[in-house]
């Protein structure tokens, strides 16, 4: 990891002076705010190492971006249990969920935009889901190059059965945060996402 903007700490800036001494009280430490019980996460350790070799840089951005990336990686590694039991990957479920929540046929391009994915990735997922009988394709009456996708009855039933289980699983994952903390986190992430989408555009993958 590297510091996000590499900005040198201004005179009197105590960013580089954060120490683990604040861990016991949950105050800012080298690497951000300590967790409950003074626990220190892996990003905090990385930040402390950077402070040791480059005390002149502000690691504030790293303390946010690094944790967001680390949380995302751990959640991906966890392999959503309900989806795994249904034989689905998260991206495949996103395609099925998009067709279910919109309630009408979509083209592959529309699915790509809705799921923040590349056209090639969506084409691959649709092929797999069609072979499983979960999605069906209809050619356009006026343009044979255009396809319209919709859920089969089996696909709709699968989404409706998996979604409640998946939400329960995600509730358990977030159980370490109370309702207020979850609400605050969702709001902050929402604000960040709006800014990033406006500035960088929707990610594709």
UniProtKB/TrEMBL annotation:
<feature type="compositionally biased region" description="Low complexity">
    <location>
        <begin position="1"/>
        <end position="26"/>
    </location>
</feature>
<dbReference type="InterPro" id="IPR036390">
    <property type="entry name" value="WH_DNA-bd_sf"/>
</dbReference>
<keyword id="KW-0804">Transcription</keyword>
<dbReference type="InterPro" id="IPR036388">
    <property type="entry name" value="WH-like_DNA-bd_sf"/>
</dbReference>
<dbReference type="Pfam" id="PF12802">
    <property type="entry name" value="MarR_2"/>
</dbReference>
<dbReference type="InterPro" id="IPR000835">
    <property type="entry name" value="HTH_MarR-typ"/>
</dbReference>
<feature type="domain" description="HTH marR-type">
    <location>
        <begin position="61"/>
        <end position="194"/>
    </location>
</feature>
<protein>
    <submittedName>
        <fullName>MarR family transcriptional regulator</fullName>
    </submittedName>
</protein>
<feature type="region of interest" description="Disordered">
    <location>
        <begin position="1"/>
        <end position="37"/>
    </location>
</feature>
<keyword id="KW-0805">Transcription regulation</keyword>
<keyword id="KW-0238">DNA-binding</keyword>
């Amino acid at each position: 990891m590297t510091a996000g903007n590499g900005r040198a700490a201004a005179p009197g800036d105590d960013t580089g002076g954060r120490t683990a001494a604040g861990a016991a009280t949950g105050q800012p430490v080298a690497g951000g705010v300590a967790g409950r019980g003074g626990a220190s996460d892996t990003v905090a350790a990385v930040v402390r190492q950077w402070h040791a070799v480059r005390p002149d840089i502000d690691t504030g951005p790293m303390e946010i971006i690094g944790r967001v990336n680390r949380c995302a990686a751990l959640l991906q590694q966890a392999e959503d249990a309900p989806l795994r039991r249904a034989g689905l990957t998260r991206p495949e479920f996103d395609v099925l969920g998009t067709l279910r929540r919109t309630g009408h046929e979509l083209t592959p391009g529309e699915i790509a935009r809705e799921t923040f994915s590349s056209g090639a990735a969506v084409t691959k997922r649709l092929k797999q889901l069609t072979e499983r009988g979960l999605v069906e394709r209809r050619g356009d009456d006026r343009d044979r190059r255009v396809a319209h996708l919709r859920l089969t009855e089996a696909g709709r039933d699968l989404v409706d059965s998996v979604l409640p289980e998946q939400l329960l699983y995600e509730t358990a994952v977030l159980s370490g945060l109370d309702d207020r903390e979850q609400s605050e986190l969702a709001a902050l992430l929402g604000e960040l996402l709006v800014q990033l989408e406006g500035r960088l555009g929707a990610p594709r993958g």
